[in-house]
Design brief:
Length: 100
């Protein structure tokens, strides 16, 4: 199931948070992540530019800074997390961008 985040203004600098803690087994950790951003609707020549800087793995969470976006565009953020056990988990969310 894909989550829908609250709308973000193009001028805001926020952090996309992907939670995996509830699905980690005892002793399992996140050892890698691949966050992506694609355009679902609207106009934006470079939707991956919303990924602003490097992600951080903090326990069972992946944090990805984000900024920018085009007014009236909708983006899909995905994060593929690789776990120490070799399992792979995916989270996704829709981010609407609207002027405040």
């Amino acid at each position: 199931m894909t989550t829908i985040w609250k709308p973000k203004d193009p001028a805001e600098h926020l952090v996309a948070t992907f939670h995996y803690l509830d699905e980690l087994d005892d002793g399992e950790t996140i050892v890698g992540a691949i966050p992506t951003c694609t355009l679902i609707s609207g106009t934006d020549a470079n939707p991956s530019a919303l990924l602003s800087g490097d992600f951080i793995i903090a326990g069972g969470t992946v944090l990805q800074p984000m900024s920018g976006g085009s007014h009236e565009a909708n983006y899909k953020f995905r994060c593929i997390a690789t776990l120490s056990s070799g399992r792979v988990l995916v989270r996704a969310a829709i981010l609407p961008v609207r002027w405040a």
